[in-house]
UniProtKB/TrEMBL annotation:
Family annotation (SUPFAM superfamilies): Jann2411-like (SSF160904)
InterPro entries named in the record: ABATE (IPR010852), ABATE_dom_sf (IPR023286), Znf_CGNR (IPR021005)
Domain Zinc finger CGNR stretches: 131-173
Record protein name field: CGNR zinc finger domain-containing protein
Gene3D superfamilies recorded: Jann2411-like domain (1.10.3300.10)
Amino acid sequence: MRITGYRSHGVAAAAALVNAVLGGDDSPDALRRILRDNGFFWREFRDADADELRHWGGTLHPFFTATSAEDAVTMLNGLMLRVPMHPHLSDHEPHGLHMHYAPPSSRLPDRFRATTLMNLAELVVEHGLGRTGVCAADDCHRVYADTSRAGRRRFCSEPCANRTNVAAFRARRRG
Ligand SMILES: [Zn+2]
Ligand SMILES: [Zn+2]
């Protein structure tokens, strides 16, 4: 089973949404971009859906800050009881054959909730909390999700990785 990579587009989307509501840009256009960049049906997004997505970002935030897999599992299980699910297979671009988790003909926000939730659950089954977390840079509260094969990511973005590396280099030189 291929968990990381393009078949789990909900993982990167979840992290991007959490960062959007954590003081990033959570305007309808920014949310639309998150959907588009992660292979969701962004054309179905209506500005009126923005509040539902923002709320879902707040709901998923504790998953990324969880310090024990047990807490994360409890949280995901609780959400899986609340989010309507009706798994089925679908074959469409850009993903090819893949799982859909929400009931057929659900609204986009419902599909987004179901997919992000299930993709995070699959990630935890495969990697525990080893692929998600809070950015390791000082004073950064943004989150990351690593779906690469290597799985070494610890920062939310390149700028955070770079300034942390520069600071470490300077500290070494002083020492
Ligand atoms: Zn699909
Ligand atoms: Zn950061």
